Amino acid sequence: MKLVIITGMSGAGKSTAFKMMEDIGFYCVDNLPIPLLEKIIELASLNNSELQKVAIGIDIRNGQPLEELSQVLDRIEETGNHCEILFLDAENSVLVKRYKETRRSHPLAGSDRVDKGLSEERRRLAFLKKRADYIIDTSHLLTRELKTEINRIFVDNQEYKNLFITILSFGFKYGIPADSDLVFDVRFLPNPFYIEELRYKSGNDKEIQDFVLQYKEAHEFLDKLEDMINFLIPNYIAEGKNQLVVSIGCTGGKHRSVTLANELFKRYEKNRQIGLKIEHRDIEKDAKRR
Predict the structure, then answer these.
(1) Which one of 130, 195, 202, 276 is least enclosed by Cβ atoms within 10 Å?
(2) pLDDT at residue 236 is higher than 60
(3) Alpha carbon distance 140, 148 (integer Å)
(4) 50 or 25: which carries more pLDDT confidence?
């Protein structure tokens, strides 16, 4: 049998993940009392059992018994079974925003602020995150992107390294993205903005791509950047980092940065050891001002 525990921070998308697991054939039980976890395994181990793929939701709603889970998991491992743990996480600022949008109170906050409840929740769940087989940071994920990640793990059975990379183009005149981990300035390349017939096109257009990529410096930049990212990926994973935002900026975030972000995305598009997405933050801003 395949047993997956779905856990993580409140507001990080566990309910959505549960629905997705149901869609791919898992029998799902949410908020299962921890003492019943071993009973579920016993049932599933019966020869005539139809419970071959089970997803169990366990989080802070279990209250104090949550502290017993570590011992239960150890006993399960001793019997030769393995519970895979999927941990859904997100940045505190994102979780606070989601709580405000839904007007819900955090289950551990009481009369205090949401961020106080989140801090206590992180403390209580730390041992589960440490034991997790898969960590997905949903801070910047769309629902369809979360579905892609879950399918990669539980349908395609692809190796998963708990790192999701966002490649982000931006314009310096609109500010550096606050969530950037790595920031690169490509304003050293000639600017197609000053060529009248190219000014109102973007790095998604072939004319701009041809203009930017005609310079050997653009290819050298991409080669060196790819080499550095390849070096960083295993080291970030070893340190437990699960979200990496690589920001590439030019003046307006429309031509050079978009072109190079697209080219970098192409180089990692077939790398199945990482999650990957691309965003062009400022690509439409000049068009709106036009």
Answers:
(1) 130
(2) yes
(3) 14
(4) 25
Q: Which residues are paired to 243 by β-bridges?
A: 164
Map out the domains of the chain with their CATH numbers: 2-154 (3.40.50.300), 164-289 (no CATH)
Between 138-152, 167-181, 206-220, the lowest mean confidence (pLDDT) is in 138-152
Structure tokens at 61: 């709603």
- CA–CA separation, 84 and 198 (whole Å): 52
Q: Does this model's pTM top 0.90?
A: no
Task: Enter the tokens of residue 135.
Answer: 């960590």
Q: Where are the beta strands (DSSP E) in the chain?
A: 2-8, 27-30, 53-57, 83-89, 134-137, 164-171, 182-185, 243-250, 275-280
3-state SS class at 177: coil
For residue 265, is pLDDT > 90?
yes
* Cβ–Cβ under 8 Å, residues 29 and 55: yes
Helix extents (H) in 132-255: 143-154, 206-213, 216-238
Whole-number Cα distances in Å, 197 to 208, 211, 215, 239: 10, 12, 19, 47
Position with higher pLDDT, 189 vs 36: 189
Decide: 266 and 203 in contact? Cβ < 8 Å: no
For residue 158, the model assigns a pLDDT of 58
Tokens describing residue 107: 């289950």
